[in-house]
Design a protein that fits this description.
By secondary structure, this protein is mainly α. The protein has helices at residues 2-28, 32-39, 42-50, 53-71, 73-94, 100-126, 135-146, 154-201, 220-231, 244-274, 281-290, 292-308. The radius of gyration is 23 Å and the shape is globular.
């Protein structure tokens, strides 16, 4: 028993040290750091998968303290709430469930909550509120960006200025939806990378994810789309500011539309797979993602598939 306890403590210490090293590498390496960031949660996933929740939380807390002493308190918070919470949640729920979708859903909720807490703490510490717009800051950022278009005509610069100011002013309104999508992408990539690394190590593995071509969302999602449309009918308040229902409706519509886009893209990829041209499917997905017209077509296709199950007719 004592040998097992000692071995567990040593393994936990090594995983904590590896997590700190990977985070610092992602923090300081200019280009490779982006790739390293995808691997950062892996030691914490193993920690949550192989040990008790208490030991995993203790290990992540120790790692936070180490990171804080090296890069400051904001860096420590970013490590603990940005990487630590997601990694430990993935490992913890993987011990209790054999369904990848269920593990991802619970870990996504933990990741979202941790990121919201991180935003609140960062706002308190820096005084920068991501939900508000400073007109002077928008003007300064726009002027800095327009300096790169010095040879353009005044009319062109005016158009670019209007577009940039519109985007910058819309970002705080769309911040909740962007935060949810960022948490979803972060959780999914952490799960996929951690699963691949664990398989290479021959250790405990995470349940396999369903093939993208089989992704399907519940029909109730369509009613969420209708609710978002109704909420957007509530315009601005008497003071000229956007109403709360309108903000909720816009963010809800963005999230629901993204899910419909994914389901429509899954239909297209399933069709390519059935026609034996699956090698091109990810290139086609990127094309759908980058071209607005194709994105709208995929969204519509996702709504149709939700009700008429197009994929069941492919290959007949």
């Amino acid at each position: 028993m004592e040998s097992n306890t000692t071995r567990g403590l040593v393994e936990s210490g090594l995983l904590v040290a590896l997590a700190v090293i990977l985070f610092l590498a992602s923090h300081f390496l200019p280009v490779a750091g982006v790739a390293v960031a995808f691997v950062c949660p892996v030691p914490l996933v193993v920690l949550g998968l192989r040990h008790s929740l208490g030991r995993a939380l203790l290990g992540a807390g120790v790692a936070m303290v180490i990171v804080t002493t090296m890069v400051g308190i904001l860096g420590g918070l970013f490590f603990g709430l940005g990487f630590g919470a997601t990694g430990i949640a993935l490992g913890y729920f993987a011990r209790r469930s054999h369904a990848a979708v269920e593990i991802l859903l619970y870990a996504l909720l933990v990741s979202l909550g941790a990121k919201l807490l991180l935003m609140v703490l960062a706002t308190k510490m820096t005084g920068i509120n991501p939900f508000s717009v400073d007109p002077e800051e928008v003007r300064r950022m726009t002027d800095a960006a327009l300096s790169m278009f010095g040879s353009a005509s005044p009319e062109t610069l005016q158009v670019i200025r209007g577009q940039m100011e519109g985007v910058l002013q819309a970002l705080p309104i769309l911040f909740p939806a962007l935060l949810v999508m960022a948490s979803g992408v972060d959780t999914f990539l952490s799960y996929a990378v951690s699963g691949a690394v664990l398989r290479r190590l021959g250790r405990e593995t995470l349940p396999p994810l369903p093939r993208f071509e089989a992704w399907r969302f519940p029909k109730s999602l369509f009613w969420a789309l209708l609710v978002s449309a109704v909420l957007t009918l509530f315009g601005g308040s008497p003071s000229g500011a956007l109403s709360v229902p309108l903000k909720i409706g816009v963010n809800l519509r963005i999230l629901v539309s993204m899910l419909f886009f994914l389901q429509g893209s899954a239909v297209v990829l399933a069709f390519l797979q059935a026609k034996k041209i699956g090698a091109w499917r990810w290139g086609v997905f990127v094309l759908f993602l980058l071209v607005p017209l194709l994105s709208q077509l995929a969204l519509i296709l996702g709504i149709i598939d939700m009700w008429f199950d197009i994929r069941s007719r492919i290959g007949r």
